[in-house]
User: Fold this.
Amino acid sequence: MSDAGEEGSYPDAPRIVHPPPGPRSRELLAEQGKWETEAVAYPHYFPIAVASARGATIEDVDGNRFIDWVAGISVLNLGHRHPRLTAALDAQSREVWHALELPTEARVRFLKELQASLPGTLRNHARIFFTVTGGDAIETAVQLADYAQGTHGTVTFSGAYHGVHGGAVRLTSGRKYHSTSPFVGGAVVRVPFPDPYRPVLGADEGAAGTISYLTHLVNDPYSGVDGVSAVLVEPVLGEGGYVVPPPDFLPALREFCDGHGILLIADEVQTGLGRTGKMWGVEHTGVTPDILCLAKTIGGGIPLSVVAYRSDLVQDLPRGFHLGTFRGNPLALAVGTEVLKVLRQGDLLEQTARRGTALIERFRAIGERHPSIGDVRGQGFMIGVEFVKDRASKVAWGERAKALRSALFARGVLMHTCGAWDQVLRFMAPLVIEDELLERGLHAFEDALESLDGTIESRIARPQKGPSSVTDWHPSAGPGLGLPSPPAPPGPHPVAETDADDA
Assistant:
């Protein structure tokens, strides 16, 4: 078991005693639906009412227990109710809950711990801007870059998700988000992300095509681009499909920005704080951004986000440059300090990198037995499994990914989709999840996939490469997590049906 603290996860997960949604969950879902906006999305994907949570597991009000491979969309890198975070929250709750921007011990402790945790030359040489949400941080970072540069224009990438907060929605690439917001247009330049699996500008040969196109945009007076102040990038695409770019991409992008007087903003809202096996996603290639945005895990589940920027970037920002009543909440800051300490102490990051590599190999082994899996990629505990109708054409198969999400849910495993067509299932479990739960989750994954693959005759007809299921795996069989004998998994359960499409 990893550093999940003394309590850890529910050891018997997954446990299904009432096929979800159970009777009490249905009652509470109906009550919620009576009063709350119909715009909520997640109850359609995971129709349960939550009673409690521990480590990498969730228990619903009907007594079902689920393995959580969603982690609040990478909010809970340290799991549910990590004992050290709980203790920090309890201690701070006895002192002060809200203090505007006035200094408190909690605020100063957080600032010092964060400064020591930042990547490259930002470490101990950054200015800090407190915000509340990830989208809030992104919007602030772009405003800051434009102010520092004295111009407007932000390069973002296809597949990008930078939130839907106010003006940040125009930086996000999804049309479905633009259609419900008045904040569209603006000085945004969209460039294809270098996707090795679905290359547009030669990403299968590295980042040269992307950089060449960027150079054309800023140098050619007839490119149609009036000016660029910053490039905003996710080190690994999140909502866009968990796409890992070629290893030369971020270094080349840093060089491009330096050569053209453009600022580099790293959106580490999802990739940061250990998710990729390093503290920051940019550290895999040794790149330091001019501005870094973080959110999600930093508050351990309490809203908190931060913008860190080069101390020499801009001087004398006007008071009230960016406002928000709840910025730098003391409760969140106390938890955030402990989050940083847990990640910096011990070997959790190294464990995540090692176990993530083993998990990628395990998912790839499953993919060899199931032609609907077109690609498996990732870093650390940020792993994407892409489904296609045909491996040759790579036609995205979102229906299969969503059906598998439902089949996993019925078996007591929570896993969510992403990608332009919702064709990617993403593994984003808490970093502290126990190996036993990973084994059970992998077994449920392939068992659910088998249930969708048609008749047993068609399954037998497929060539078998490697062990036929997770329970057949042992250390000598190939890459694995090192468990000598995984516990017996629970039996299969009926697939939960929902009539809701993805938001």
